[in-house]
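Sat 14:20. Reprocessing the chain from the morning session after the first attempt stalled halfway. Input below, unchanged.
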Amino acid sequence: MPPQRQLAHLAWPQVREAAERPGSTVVWPWGAVEQHGPQLPLATDGLFAERLLDAVLEELEEQQPIWRLPLQPIGFSPEHLGFAGSLSLPPELVIATVCSVGRQLADCGFQRLVLFNAHGGQIALLQCAARQLRQQVPALAVLPCFLWSGIDGLAELLPAAEREAGLHAGLAETSLMLHLAPELVGPQRPCDGQAATPPAGWSLEGSAPCAWLTSDLSGTGVVGDARGSDPALGQALAERLVQAWRRRFESLLASSWPPGCAIRTPEPPEIG
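Finished this time. Tokens:
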């Protein structure tokens, strides 16, 4: 990871110069401290966010005006409480944290903030926080993203059953960890949580989701099938993810987003 990409490693005059560059963009990786079955570490999501973001930033041209913040390691994970070690911040604290940091970055002069999130359980919350921040600071573009969303080519690598029901610590996450940090992966390969199905017309996630708790679905903490996990699949997943996010960041950096953001107070209508 080039040290000049890490905002916290710069001195304040360098930060001021960075913020003044056209299109200045800060990426804030978000993880979680939550159970990931008996085979994966609590920090799985944060490790994915940091390792893959760093790989993406390494591929961008050096002159691109983009920097990253340190990882936000603890997020919003109430669905996993009850499994030892899982931690969760209150939702109002997460929103306040995003808004506070975002306002201060905007005060420095930065023009964009990307919330680079790898924990599925806080997608909606970070979207709410992003909208709240944008309302408070209209000149700052705020882009809440989820690591796994909209990535071309994943369907070629994962079976349909796992794409639909492998919600947590299953084939994809275990394989990716075997590629990125195999020393952190235990020997178990559970297949769990797939027998619990919501009523007809409802889903665990998707068009009519249920607010499920992991304990509703799984005794091991895994919601999916980790039995076929292997590092080669993990490498293929990592390559797809890095390629997709490199293209997205290149597109953002080449754009003039956000559009004109000045909030104008409507003039009162003329009378008479």
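DSSP finds nine helices and six strands in the chain.
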